[in-house]
Give the backbone structure.
Amino acid sequence: MNTNEASRDVRAHYDRVALREGTRLQDPYRASEALVLRAVVGGLLADRGPLSVVAEIGSGPGHYGPWLHSIAERVLCLDLSAVELAAVPGVRDTARIQADACRLPVADGRLDAVFLLGPHYHLPEAVDRRRMINEAVRVLVPGGLLVVAGLNRTGASVKTVWRCPRRAWRTRVLLGKALRASVALPAGALGDFPPAFLSDGHALRAELETAGLVDVSVHGCESFTVLAPGLARRARRGPRAGRALDALLVSSAPGRVSLALSEHLLAVARKPGPPG
């Protein structure tokens, strides 16, 4: 599958699910990704003032927009889907741009941080993922931050089989392969999901280091709740229990158990050079 085919399938998928995408991202089970993101990035930016311009590539309906505005003066929301971009709130100093992650309409060295919270696992071909990462590096300032979300092959496979034990035989075979090595999945292998790439922490780190990025760290997002997302939903009914679960998720993120079980991975890296 080439880049154009992958882009077409991803665009069609998110055009179709745009109305429910914002709700999905607000699910308590998904909220752990935001918790880990804010904790890790917030720690890295603790000694710096507000960033000038950041971009979220694959922004969808702008779920992370309010948080991004808390760390930057201007936010670029880029997405393949015009339907998704139309749902991005029209907040001051927010630009909505329909674009492909592999061909960014941004000049060299303009962004303080780039967030790729989705495109990586929608590109099954290694050459396309390299192109995407190189594009992100190109538009970053020296010392700029790159954040990449990936689908974890073990966590995603375990969750899919655990929650859907009767899934088609072909899918079970593919997920079995994913327990041994990174694998590209065709459209429909994970429900109505478009083509996907299941990776792991070591492979994701290697991709970023090969692109010349430094200070790479990889974190798990969901921890044990990948097996029982209902735990997260029930825990958040009470504020104290919810805060305790949040603390557990964030504190366990760098641990081996979390990396093994998490459905999503979050990699953070820096472009060489002193921060601006």
Observations:
- Residues 169 and 175 are 10 Å apart (CA to CA).
